[in-house]
């Protein structure tokens, strides 16, 4: 290669390296989330461990949401409370119907945001009950605990607020319960659902059980259980109701559209499926009391 050719080659090489270096040093601008454009498609999940929702009612709910929002709605089912939380955290769900504790966990783990809560008897509050069969000799929780060695106790799903967290903390504070395998009771079971707990008490398969007051009332109203067969021996303080929450990736415009659609649902068949008589606006702050109980019980890690 002649000197002249070598000089031209060196110049070209220098120019190429300069262009590459410039490109590598360039800062890529990340696109910001559009907070005004409403999503075209949405994936929705429900906690599965409540009184079961018939397929035709679930389709009616999906269709109602689709019509009122203009979005394509896809419903998803999961085997337990935790499955819904994990699906939302991993971006598989855009919105979910959650229990209060489940919501607090989803917010803690993945930034989920409450947009509405259901109402029962016109208010967004409910209670945890401990119930026994009417034939049981106990009229108070104190009386039950005096006979604890003969008590088969039922919780609902382990991640249920009214069926596990709140009554569990009460029993821990009374020194009779530490875990499923470590308690002063004859036995402890987790039924996985409020309707199963209620039927277990009614059929005398367990001595006592913890249940959501709204679901208990709805099961009685729908004649799925006989309300005359139960005695309430303990009731919690007021708890804020179950929310619909959106994932942190859902923008403000989409969240507002969903909030309006849910609040405007008046169909009794759909509302009954959620043991509700309506939905009202909700925010993360509404669940602060439950968050504190969850933290104290070591549920937020």
Automatic annotation (TrEMBL):
Domain of life of the organism encoding this protein: Bacteria
Q: Where is the signal peptide?
A: 1-21
Task: State the GO CC annotations.
Answer: ATP-binding cassette (ABC) transporter complex
Keywords of the record: Signal
Q: Which PROSITE patterns match?
A: PROKAR_LIPOPROTEIN
InterPro entries per UniProt: PhnD
Any GO BP: transmembrane transport
Query: Family, per the entry?
Result: Belongs to the phosphate/phosphite/phosphonate binding protein family.
Instruction: Kindly provide the name given to this protein in its UniProt entry.
Output: Phosphonate transport system substrate-binding protein
* Organism whose genome encodes this protein: Tumebacillus permanentifrigoris
Q: What are the leading ranks of the lineage?
A: Bacteria, Bacillati, Bacillota, Bacilli, Bacillales
């Amino acid at each position: 290669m002649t000197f002249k050719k070598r000089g031209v080659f060196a110049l070209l090489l220098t120019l190429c390296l300069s262009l590459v270096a410039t490109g590598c040093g360039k800062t890529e601008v990340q696109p910001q989330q559009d907070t005004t454009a409403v999503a075209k498609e949405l994936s929705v999940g429900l906690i599965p461990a409540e009184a079961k929702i018939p397929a035709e009612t679930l389709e009616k709910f999906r269709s109602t949401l689709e019509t009122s929002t203009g979005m394509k709605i896809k419903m998803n089912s999961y085997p337990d409370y935790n499955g819904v939380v994990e699906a939302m955290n991993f971006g598989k769900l855009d919105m979910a119907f959650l229990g209060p504790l489940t919501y607090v966990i989803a917010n803690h783990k993945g930034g989920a945001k409450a947009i509405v809560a259901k109402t029962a008897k016109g208010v967004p509050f409910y209670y945890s009950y401990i119930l026994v069969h009417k034939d049981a000799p106990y009229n108070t929780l104190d009386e039950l605990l005096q006979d604890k060695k003969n008590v088969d106790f039922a919780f609902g799903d382990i991640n249920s607020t009214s069926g596990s967290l709140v009554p569990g903390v009460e029993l821990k504070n009374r020194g009779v319960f530490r875990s499923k395998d470590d308690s002063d009771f004859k036995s402890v079971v987790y039924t996985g659902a409020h309707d199963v707990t209620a039927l277990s008490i009614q059929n005398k398969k367990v001595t006592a059980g913890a249940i959501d007051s709204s679901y208990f009332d709805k099961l009685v109203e729908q004649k799925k259980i006989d309300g005359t067969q139960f005695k309430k021996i303990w009731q919690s303080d007021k708890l804020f109701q179950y929310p619909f929450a959106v994932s942190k990736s859902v923008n403000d415009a989409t969240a507002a559209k969903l909030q309006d659609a849910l609040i405007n649902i008046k169909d009794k068949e759909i509302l009954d499926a959620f043991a509700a008589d309506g939905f009202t606006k909700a925010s993360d702050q509404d669940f602060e009391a439950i968050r504190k109980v969850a933290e104290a019980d070591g549920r937020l890690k």
